[in-house]
């Protein structure tokens, strides 16, 4: 472990020292990021930060080659050289894009070329977990490898829209991957995991070294010369573990640790992949090219609801950690505890996303029903995840079902009330109140019937249902009060002077 940390520290130090030099070079040659309609920065900023990242990566690799333990990763395998050379190729393509603004097709061709450089040297997917384990023909394995690499590159590239955003997300993702690959190499004895372990700790190092220069307000951007190599390195690390294992040698005992890298690859890049997928769907259904830029990415939406640049980046950091670390923790702890930690982390991320918003209008212009649905629904959703996880840990699947049953029933009853209220809001007030009263009686009767249905549950499950139902009711009431305090209610103030009123009507 100490040698890995030392290599990462060297990569971070060299990156930190190289970044000001690269910034000066970018200023001298005019490699500045222009102000485009979709950008959030307001001042032209130097880019080419990827040169410092690559410099730190190479320095870390050279240092690792001189260390006794890490030197073994270079012996008998060309995986590290293959991944590093592919990263250099895609970095050069990124530099060209930063200068000449290459079109999307040219960039995709360059990314495929970089993946081909890695494949030629022997790093590719040899099998996939499809209905068991299927060994891939050479041609199909090459196509699958290129596809994984291209998707990972563009996922990281898409999320690089705020100061320090891509840098922090990739650092968190790589740290989760490092923890898993280190365990895979040391505990499970997969010697080929040493390549991924070294590459991921170096990714963490270069990102940490670059982040002080890239955090808002950024002094330099990594540009495509940085975002594309980072995505390439993450994909190459996963392929070096999973894809390189002999499918015939996999058994029931070692299949799980061999499969997890595939899952972990998508987990650590969940936020960038979500942004990429939604962008493609959004643009395609609107009749635009999937490569057409816009200002509807996740970070743009966080800024729109009132978050600052730094807070938006921190929230996306939290979401990345909430997904990546629990998936990685499957290798360290029982599955139920990993699930529980993931649910709690996601709830905290959800609370940070919508609970830390500042700078919004004090009052909402939505209707009372819609505002209640927004606030109470969010509270009920978070509570469902928390109490469902608690029920699972206490009583297993039946406990989770009982807890979620209570949340679902109460939420359904409240949703019914909101729908009726929304649909009858234009009727006479007396008629609306009568309908709401009748619905309230129906709700009570329905709840009583449902409580009778839950009586057969034994071993404390009925108690869990009761706690879930009561707490969910309180949360919906809190949401209603919260919504009432945040909406604008139009009022009409009559004029005191009738003559004035008559005059205004005459006019």
Quote the beta fraction: under 5%
Please outline the major beta sheet: 2 strands, antiparallel
- Using only C-alpha atoms, the radius of gyration works out to 28 Å
| Strand arrangement in the largest pleated sheet | 1-2
Order of secondary-structure elements: HEEHHHEEHHHHHHHHHHHHH
Mean pLDDT: 78
| Structural class category | mainly alpha
The CA-CA distance between the termini, in Å, is 85 Å
Give the strand tally: 4
**Percent range for helical residues?**
over 70%
Global geometry: globular
List the total number of helices. 17
Task: Domain count, please report it.
Answer: 2
Low-confidence spans: pLDDT under 50, at least 5 residues? 249-254, 359-363, 499-507
Task: Explain how this protein is built.
This protein has 507 residues and is an all-alpha fold. The chain folds into two domains: 2-337, no CATH class; 361-486, no CATH class. It is built from 17 helices and four strands. The strands form two sheets. A two-stranded antiparallel sheet has the order 1-2. It has a two-stranded antiparallel ribbon with strand order 3-4. A hairpin with a 5-residue loop joins strand 3 (127-128) and strand 4. Helix 4 packs across helix 5 and helix 14 packs across helix 16 (461-486). The protein starts with a helix and ends with a helix. The model is unreliable at 249-254, 359-363 and 499-507 (pLDDT under 50).
């Amino acid at each position: 472990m100490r040698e890995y940390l030392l290599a990462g520290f060297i990569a971070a130090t060299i990156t930190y020292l190289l970044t000001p030099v690269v910034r000066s070079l970018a200023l001298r040659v005019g490699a500045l990021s222009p102000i485009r309609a979709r950008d959030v920065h307001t001042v032209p900023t130097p880019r080419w930060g990827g040169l410092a990242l690559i410099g730190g990566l190479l320095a870390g690799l050279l240092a690792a080659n001189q260390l006794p333990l890490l030197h073994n990763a270079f012996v008998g395998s060309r995986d590290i050289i293959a991944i590093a050379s592919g990263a250099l190729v895609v970095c050069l393509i990124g530099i060209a894009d930063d200068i000449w603004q290459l079109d999307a097709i040219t960039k995709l061709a360059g990314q495929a070329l970089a993946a081909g450089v890695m494949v030629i040297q022997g790093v590719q997917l040899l099998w996939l977990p499809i209905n068991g384990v299927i060994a891939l023909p050479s041609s199909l394995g090459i196509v699958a490898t290129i596809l994984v690499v291209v998707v990972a590159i563009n996922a990281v590239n898409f999320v690089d829209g705020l100061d320090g955003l891509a840098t922090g997300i990739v650092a968190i993702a790589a740290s989760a991957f490092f923890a898993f690959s280190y365990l895979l190499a040391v505990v499970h004895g997969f010697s080929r995991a040493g390549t991924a372990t070294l590459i991921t700790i170096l990714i963490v190092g270069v990102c940490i070294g670059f982040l002080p220069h890239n955090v808002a307000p950024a002094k330099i951007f990594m540009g495509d010369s940085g975002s594309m190599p980072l995505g390439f390195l993450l994909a190459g690390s996963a392929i070096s573990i999973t894809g390189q294992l002999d499918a015939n040698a996999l058994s029931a005992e070692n299949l799980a640790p061999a499969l997890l890298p595939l899952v972990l690859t998508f987990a650590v890049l969940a936020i960038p992949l979500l942004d990429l997928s939604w962008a493609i769907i959004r643009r395609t259904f609107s009749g635009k090219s999937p490569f057409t830029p816009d200002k509807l990415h996740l970070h743009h939406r966080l800024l729109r609801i009132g978050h600052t640049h730094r807070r938006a980046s921190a929230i996306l950091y939290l979401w990345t950690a909430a997904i990546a670390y629990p998936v990685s923790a499957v290798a360290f702890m029982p599955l139920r505890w990993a699930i529980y930690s993931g649910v709690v982390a996601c709830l905290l991320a959800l609370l940070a996303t919508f609970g830390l918003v500042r700078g919004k209008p004090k009052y909402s212009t939505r209707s009372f029903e819609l505002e209640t649905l927004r606030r109470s629904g969010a509270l009920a959703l978070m509570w469902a995840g928390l109490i469902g996880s608690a029920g699972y840990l206490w009583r297993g699947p039946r406990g989770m079902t009982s807890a979620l049953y209570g949340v679902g029933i109460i939420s359904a009853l409240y949703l019914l009330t909101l729908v009726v209220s929304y649909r009858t809001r234009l009727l006479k007030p007396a008629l609306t109140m009568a309908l709401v009263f009748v619905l309230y009686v129906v709700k009570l009767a329905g709840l009583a019937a449902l409580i009778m249905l839950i009586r057969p549950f034994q071993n404390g499950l009925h108690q869990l249902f009761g706690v879930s139902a009561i707490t969910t009711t309180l949360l919906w009431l809190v949401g209603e009060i919260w919504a009432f305090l945040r909406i604008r209610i139009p009022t009409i103030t009559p004029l005191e002077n009738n003559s004035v009123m008559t005059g205004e009507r005459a006019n």
